[in-house]
């Protein structure tokens, strides 16, 4: 406040011409002025430019409009990607036929595509192997409940392994050491896959429908996995011989273990075959006795020929089936012995640093193992068909034969039939 204004206020205060102000008015006016001064002070302290106002100084409204649009788009994309990632996470354990199974496959394909586009072959191989492992696990889980779905999953598994093998082969041309490291990883993955497929085969055997086709698909998949594993071992031999020796030893031990299982299965099947052979012999004796009884009862050659023609071929067919099964069992048993001997030769070749020869021997043993498994599968199928025939049906068939014999006896002993026979004999 200036000195001049202060002097005027003092003069006005001393001027008594108009009378002194009332004390109550002074007090009330003073309080009102102080309150107004206080409010004005708070407003002055808080009336600072906001961030939005400051931001508008830097960016005009014409520029903020498209920025707001981009922000909205970014928010929508973020929400969509978040939803996609949530779906992918939820689809991890989905199986063929599930709602999210397509999302699972699309996610794997997207990862593989990105790896290939960026030229990251190591990542591409690992993604393909992971996908193949997923397919094997799925086959194991659906083999019993959904055997008809096995074929599609098996084809996808084979494609995954083929992609991995191609990428390893490409890297083999430029960097054998890296290729060998990936090939080693491939042998480890294929070993796990083979185990899952063996478990799946056991599950399929428990099914009532779709058994043969699903078993065939699993056997083919197992062969593909076996070939991929041995091919990968060959790559390891080139890039890291010492590790290749260890892998060959493990693979040989695995073959020997599977061969022991095959031997046990053959022993059980041979027992079943022997029981089938015994039952067939007893059935043949019963058929002969029955035929003699029929001949004693029946006096016409027409009826006799008809009954003999319906029983004799069945006995011959049964005998042929048994002979075929015995031959199959013998071949399979010989093959298990070949695998034992071949495994010993493989280990000797490996110890002598003849690693490529050892790999070739493993290929041969793999082919023999496949033939053995096919023979065992055929034996299981034939013997299972025989064991599934209920004895009630056999008893019913026997009753039908006995009823037929009685009916023919009544027919022959009737007066009309005797007259006809006498006329035929006299002629």
- Output the helix-strand order: HHHHHHHHHHHHHH
How would a crystallographer describe the biggest sheet?
A: none
Q: Which overall shape is indicated by the principal axes computed on the Cα atoms? A: elongated
- In total, the number of strands is 0
What separation lies between the terminal Cα atoms? 165 Å
What is the helix content?
over 70%
Provide the residue-averaged pLDDT.
77
Structural class: mainly alpha
Counted by DSSP, the helix tally is: 14
Provide the gyration radius in Å: 46 Å
Strand percentage, roughly? Answer: under 5%
| Uncertain segments | 75-85, 311-316, 386-398, 408-413
Question: Would you give an account of this structure?
Answer:
The protein has 427 residues and is mainly α. It is built from 14 helices and no strands. The chain has helices spanning 3-14, 23-46, 51-58, 61-90, 101-117, 121-142, 150-174, 176-205, 211-239, 241-297, 301-351, 355-388, 391-413, 415-426. Helix 9 runs antiparallel to helix 10 and helix 10 runs antiparallel to helix 11 (301-351). It is elongated. Mean pLDDT is 77; it is low at 75-85, 311-316, 386-398 and 408-413.
Descriptive keywords:
mainly alpha; elongated
Task: Describe the protein's topology.
Layout: H1 3-14, H2 23-46, H3 51-58, H4 61-90, H5 101-117, H6 121-142, H7 150-174, H8 176-205, H9 211-239, H10 241-297, H11 301-351, H12 355-388, H13 391-413, H14 415-426
Please sum up the structure shown.
The chain is an all-alpha fold.
């Amino acid at each position: 406040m200036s000195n001049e204004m202060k002097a005027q206020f003092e003069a006005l205060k001393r001027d008594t011409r108009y009378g002194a102000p009332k004390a109550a008015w002074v007090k009330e006016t003073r309080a009102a002025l102080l309150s107004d001064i206080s409010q004005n002070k708070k407003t002055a302290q808080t009336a600072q430019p906001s961030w939005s106002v400051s931001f508008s100084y830097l960016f005009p409204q014409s520029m903020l409009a498209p920025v707001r649009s981009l922000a909205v788009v970014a928010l929508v994309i973020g929400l969509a990607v978040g939803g996609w990632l949530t779906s992918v996470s939820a689809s991890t354990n989905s199986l063929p036929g599930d709602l999210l199974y397509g999302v699972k496959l699309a996610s794997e394909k997207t990862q593989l595509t990105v790896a290939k586009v960026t030229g990251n072959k190591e990542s591409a191989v690992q993604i393909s192997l992971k996908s193949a492992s997923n397919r094997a696990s799925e086959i194991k889980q659906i083999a019993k409940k959904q055997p008809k779905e096995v074929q599609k999953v098996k084809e996808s598994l084979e494609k995954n392994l083929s992609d991995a093998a191609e990428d390893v082969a490409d890297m083999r041309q430029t960097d054998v050491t890296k290729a060998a490291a990936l090939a080693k990883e491939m042998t480890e993955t294929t070993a796990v896959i083979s185990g899952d497929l063996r478990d799946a085969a056991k599950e399929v055997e428990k099914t009532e429908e779709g058994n043969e086709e699903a078993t065939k698909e699993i056997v083919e998949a197992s062969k593909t996995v076996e070939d991929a594993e041995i091919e990968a071992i060959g790559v390891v031999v080139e890039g890291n011989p010492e590790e290749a020796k260890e892998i060959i030893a493990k693979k040989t031990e695995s073959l020997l273990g599977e061969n022991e299982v095959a031997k046990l299965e053959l022993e059980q099947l041979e027992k079943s075959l022997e029981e089938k052979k015994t039952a067939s012999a007893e059935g043949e004796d019963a058929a002969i006795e029955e035929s003699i009884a029929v001949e004693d009862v029946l006096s016409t050659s027409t009826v006799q020929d008809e009954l003999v023609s319906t029983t004799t071929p069945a006995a011959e067919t049964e005998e042929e089936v048994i002979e075929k099964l015995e031959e199959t069992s013998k071949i399979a048993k010989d093959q298990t012995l070949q695998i034992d001997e071949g495994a010993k030769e493989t280990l000797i070749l490996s110890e002598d640093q003849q690693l490529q020869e050892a790999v070739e021997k493993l290929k041969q043993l793999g082919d023999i193992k496949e033939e053995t498994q096919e023979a065992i599968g055929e034996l299981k199928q034939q013997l299972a068909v025989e064991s599934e025939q209920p004895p009630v049906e056999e008893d019913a068939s026997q009753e039908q034969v006995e009823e037929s014999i009685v009916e023919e006896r009544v027919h022959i002993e009737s007066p009309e039939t005797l007259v006809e026979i006498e006329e035929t004999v006299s002629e």
